[in-house]
Structure formats: structure tokens, C-alpha cells
Amino acid sequence: MATSVNAIRTSTVKRRALNRDKVEAAILREAVRLFAAGGYEGTSIATVAERAGLSKQNLLYYFPTKEALYRRVLDGVLDDWLARMASLADARKEPADVLRAYVRAKLKFSREQPLASRVYALEVIGGAKVYGEQIRQRVIPLLRADIAVFERWIADGRIAPVNATHLLFAVWAMTQSYADFAAQMTLVLGREQLAQDDFDDAERLVTAMVLAAVGLP
Known about the structure:
By secondary structure, the protein is mainly α. The chain contains ten helices and no strands. 24% of the residues are buried. The mean pLDDT is 90.
């Protein structure tokens, strides 16, 4: 009998957890869309709740403040972005292979998560007033690790001397623009959205530029 009761309790807990995950996912999906369009100041909890099919009070049960929701969205963006960045910090691999993979990963992020990229861009453009400390704590250490890899490659004569910090800034700008400035690109190209061919062309060009910058064919 005790085993049966425990099984029922366990099943109930699992159902509640699954339902919570489902509701949170719906909230975050709509929050990303709205924060990408209006930024932090231009987005209200009431609008996010309405878009997610919830009451404002119900949403506040999951995220007690707009800042908590905004930070959760940016946590997800940064987790994804840094996971792709981390692949660079491996000096054992061939520099050309690492750099090709890095450019590919950054463009893939722009292609797959354009709204998330725009939320992050708007936060940074606005002075990173809400999320600046997290950026300092999480981005800077990984950036330094990546720069150390470049310095090791340079010391070993595997790549030409280069200012790794500014090279990485340039890669970020070139790859993230395909998300953050996609509207401008589609206007210039005369179409509704960027196609896979556009990202393939961008990958070839950006990769060639990066490899040329470090003296690799």
C-alpha cells in the first residue's frame, strides 16, 4: 500500500514539474519575442502574460518581477552563446579548424536564435544597465581564455601575430549582424527573410577573412 501511495505522489510531482516547465517555456517564448521588439523598457508583464495565454497574476507566480523574467531570458541567451564560444578555447586543435567551427557556430546561433540575439543586443546598446554584471562575470573570463589560445598559437608560430581581442570583436560583429540587422539585410536584398544560402555565403566569406587575418590559407 505504501509503495502505491509513493508511486502516486511521485507521478503527481512529475506531472506538476512537466506542467511548470511547459508554462515557463510558453512565457519565455513570448518574452523573447516582446523583449526583442521593445527592449526591457518597452515590454510589460501584462503583455507577456496575455501573449502566453495567462493572467498577469499567474505569470507572476513563475516570474515575480519583469526584471526576473528579463534576466531569465538573457541567462538563456548567454548560456547558448558561451557554449558556442567555449569551443575556441582548445589550443590542441588546428587553428584553422577551430576558427572555421567558431564562425560556423556563431552564424548558426544568429540563424537559429535571431530574437534572442536581438534581446542581448538591445541590452548592450542600452548600456547593459540590467545585465552588465553578468556579462562581466561570464563573458570576460571566457574571452580571456580564448585570447590565451591565440597567444599560444602565436608563440608556437602556428598563426601570424594578431590582436586577438579585436579579431574576436570583429567576428562577433560580422556574425551577429545576421540576426541583429537582418531587417536591413532583407530590405537591401528585396526579400522577406534571409535564406540558408545567405548564411552559407556569409560563412565562407567571414571564415576566409578570419583565416587571412591570422595568416592561414
